[in-house]
Amino acid sequence: MGRTAAPAYVLGVGMTKFIKPRGKVDYTELGFEAGIKAMLDAQISYDDVDQGVACYCYGDSTCGQRVFYQFGMTQIPIYNVNNNCSTGSTGLSMARTMVSYGAADCVLVVGFEKMNPGSLQAYFNDRANPTGTTGKMMQETRGVTKAPSAAQLFGNAGREYMEKYGARPEDFAEIARINHDHSKRNPYSQFQDSYSLEQVLKSTMIHEPLTKLQCCPTSDGGAAAVIVSQKFLDARPHLVEQAVLIAGQRLATDGPSLFDRSSIDLVGYGMSQCAAEAALAEAGVQPKDIKVVELHDCFSANEMTTIDALGLCEHGKAHEMVRAGDITYGGKVVINPSGGLISKGHPLGATGLAQCAELVWHLRGWANNRLVEGADVCLQHNLGLGGAAVVTVYKRADGKSAKAIPSDVVGQWNKLGYNPAVEARGFTSEQVDRTRSSKSRSEWALQDTQQKVQARF
């Protein structure tokens, strides 16, 4: 595919707690908090940032500038990205491309979303819907019900997996049970309740086999990452231990299989498989090498088909992997230790960057309450219908594997004084000052947003 990409590293990450969309926190505050935390983690100021990428689906044009101007007004390029549910990881892919091909040495990516309660709705009804062809194919193959359209699409994929390979409704419910159980350890998760398999199965049926507890909620939230070059990292050798290499990455879109009249292909199986194969090949690893995965479980049915698409199991045997307990602690791979979209929440623009943050914490050894000991390779999968799938493979920059690190040592490393993987905290005005641009400041915006953010903690 042309020139070889130079190394790009995730040097800092940050995120807000994901919350119910009740309009109480504006996107400016969500983006500000996530961005400040990522810069604090990377031990940089906004003056170090060459380019900015803002990721969101719901909002007016240039919301990104409104968020970034709170860090300073340095006249750098700021890009606004909207790629459906894979928006955050698309921004991550853009940043990696900029760094790997010499356009920047330091890129700040901030994802945020302020959503309306309830299922996703179309806002532009006077023009063609971008997923209209997908909906038409669903209607022709499986019909249409009164359930939310996304639940129908993914529920139909689950039905096809049962018909073709022998999965049962209990297998999908078990995926949700595990993800809800994982979320108890994640302070950023929107929901932190655990449920029995029976409770998951008996919750309100949305679109068979999907019950309510197998569907992700709408959410408000923010997440951010700082992506840097080899040159930038070499100038800061004391940060090598916390830097995480983007060892392989691919953003893929749909192929002709989208219209092969398969409900599984209709929800992105083909592009997820394409992206995974390319990212794993670039990273020089096999699916069996992956220890931790954050994948796009907008519905339990999508986790099932994605396990298959990523090559984590033999084709058609994802449900056997679930039954064997091989997707959680003690199994072959830990999938969605954060709780996944099902329990952590799904603020569209922030989701891909939150997945990145989770895996970075694991590889550093900071996720002590949910750490997978010895993890040296992690994989992220983020999917957006319409469509785009981004798969990213991460390794530590120093080539070591993750080991649990005492929280006091973590505090010394990241200069935050706490472990962000296990504590959802705010920040002080002194910390904000460390990240501000010294070249130019939008004082009114900084003070206004800072006061609002501080009031939440």
Characteristics:
alpha/beta, lipid-binding, single chain, globular, Thiolase_C_2, 15% strand, potassium, two-stranded antiparallel sheet, transferase, 457 residues, 10-stranded mixed β-sheet
Model description:
This protein has 457 residues and is α/β, with parallel strands linked by helices. 38% of the residues lie in helices and 15% in strands. It has 17 helices and 12 strands. The protein has helices at residues 27-42, 63-68, 87-100, 132-142, 149-165, 169-183, 197-202, 230-234, 263-266, 269-283, 300-309, 318-323, 340-344, 348-364, 407-414, 429-435, 443-455; strands at residues 8-15, 51-55, 78-81, 106-113, 205-207, 210-211, 221-229, 244-252, 292-294, 334-335, 377-384, 388-396. The strands form 2 sheets. It has a 10-stranded mixed sheet with strand order 3-2-4-7-1-8-12-11-9-10. A two-stranded antiparallel sheet has the order 5-6. A hairpin with a 2-residue loop joins strand 5 (205-207) and strand 6 (210-211). The chain is globular and about 60 Å long.
Topology:
Blueprint: E1 8-15, H1 27-42, E2 51-55, H2 63-68, E3 78-81, H3 87-100, E4 106-113, H4 132-142, H5 149-165, H6 169-183, H7 197-202, E5 205-207, E6 210-211, E7 221-229, H8 230-234, E8 244-252, H9 263-266, H10 269-283, E9 292-294, H11 300-309, H12 318-323, E10 334-335, H13 340-344, H14 348-364, E11 377-384, E12 388-396, H15 407-414, H16 429-435, H17 443-455
Parallel strand pairs: 2-3, 2-4, 9-10, 9-11
Antiparallel strand pairs: 1-7, 1-8, 4-7, 5-6, 8-12, 11-12
